[in-house]
Structure prediction request, 689 residues.
Amino acid sequence: MRARKKKIDGNSFLLMITIVLFAIMYVIGMIVFADKNFGKLQVFLNLFINNAGLIVAATGMTMVLITGGIDISVGSVIAMTCMLLAWMMEIKGMGAIPSLVIVLVIGLIFGLVQGFLIAYLKIQPFIVTLAGMFFARGMTAIISTEMISIKNSLFLSWANAKIYLPFGGTINRKGVMIYPYIYPSVVLAILTLIAFFVILKFTKFGRSVYAVGGNEQSALLMGLNVKRTKLKVYIVNGLLGAFAGFLFCLNTCAGFVEQAKGFEMEAIASAVIGGTLLTGGVGNVFGSLFGVLIKGTIETFITFQGTLSSWWTKITIAVLLAFFIILQSILAKKKQKK
Amino acid sequence: MNNTLKKITGYRLFLPLVCLALVLLVNVIKTPNFFAISIQNGVFYGYIVDVINRASELVILAVGMTLVVAASGGTDISVGAVSAVAGAVAIFIIGGGEASTDFYHAPYILGFFAALLAGTLCGAWNGFLVAKMKIQPMVATLILFTAGRGIAQLITGGNILYMRVDSFKQLGGFIQGVPLPTPVFVAIFVVLITLFILKKTALGLYIQTVGINAKAARLVGLNSVLIQFLTYTFCGICAGIAGMIITSRVYSIDANNAGLNMELDAILAVALGGNSLGGGKFSLIGSVIGAITIQALTTTLYAMKVSADQLPVYKAIVVIIIVSLQSPELKRMLRNAKLQLQNGQQGKKVA
Prediction:
């Protein structure tokens, strides 16, 4: 029992570091870019606006990683979803709602097939989702190699509906009070995150996800249906992938083949920075949220700075990743010694 | 008769070879001129030459990847990015950092070894994280996967650097008077050297032992950490060589696209070669066959006029079919179904 308590302490320690690091980075940003209004609430909200899709994708990824699996098809699924949405609405003239439903169902089926191959045929998740990644990216190209912009009025009204916050307003040069705003995509992303926090923490399904990831053998001996749990996880993950694609599409309002390339690695990196172990059994969706926010902050830094090139984002994220990964391994070693 | 059949189908390389044969068989029906080889300007031309030529980098990467998978039960997802780094280093040194140049600013050999050194260093970093720090391979190599292209862009200044010297194109093209493309020889050289080291020393056995159980290997006196470290470093060198071939082929380096998705193909090659991604026993030749299968598939689809963007769909379907066939779970499910069927029939007879 005591050992278990210590384990949790170590993990919340990692989560704490992530949160503290985010706070420090943000404060530094406020000081360095004070003249450019880094401290404005809107800048903070933009982190969510720009990364709504990533938050949802990282939530699904966290769940998959907790089971000890991996999903590298997310980026391609997002591209396929965006392309499908654009194609159905613009070329086929379908409504926004039926298109959304179809896309979600496709995501679900995608997850179902992947889950079946992984859970029941016991093929490595990496290989299955690698094939999934190829498949989805290729399908995107088969639907259309040209970029399709979305002009559906209902969809655009979702995308551009600003929700103003009732507080934190600033007065601009003309003396007009401007309140900070968010888009519906942010609300949906946050709701998804909270829902999955609750599901993973308090439902039977959530607890079996952790059990399967912690030790598959013991989970089996405990009487859990390991295969079915894994299948469910990948189905839900497929659904979340399509949903993330929808949110992503609300931001870009277009479908094109090269969209969201490398997105899966961003999701994995966010989860790892947020304290999820790739060995499975350990992880928290809120940690992943902070992973996403840290990535967003680095990007904001680089835009605000202006002269740095975009590849510094990659290098900084990799350095942070290295830092967290090494920290995790040191903590794990310490635990073993005790 | 039954015994010999079992012996043949039980042979490790049986399934990978069947897969390759199947891919080639499709060509016999669909593109009859697939196997035609002609001689133009003193060099061989034809689809089949193209397959072997284009598969070279993949074969080299697959060799490194096989050892990494065997020793650590994990994959190195940074090889594509490392190739880009190696290529960027080489062209930066030889071309003096200029965007386009038509003479060597530094000796070729210097650039070549600098590229290998860059690959070695990247591999060593991965090896250090995996072997010494005990970090899962995928996570450890995720760092260079993310940073690699950034570093390469840092070296090239975000531009595509061109190196328009004929002798620079030789590594990825043809050497005067030799009818076969140079990459093929490089790939054969790498495979032979690796096979020689693995078979003539105990290293091959050590790698398997460490892969099956690193702790037990240490208890019998093997330096597990060193062996894992060496496999990753070797994989880095392979990525460096592959990077040189890739840059030489297009006599330029584009940090964003050089070796893109090569890591995925390399891992696939290992899996298609019948190797378990869980580590332990491995077959280098299997991976080589796997790599050639992937390239044969790609070239086949091109020959059938499938566009490059749509290619991944077919690749994915074939991959899933092949790995499903190799899955022992599927065999068990089929056997159970068959047994149930038989039982059902017997039950009927009794009744």
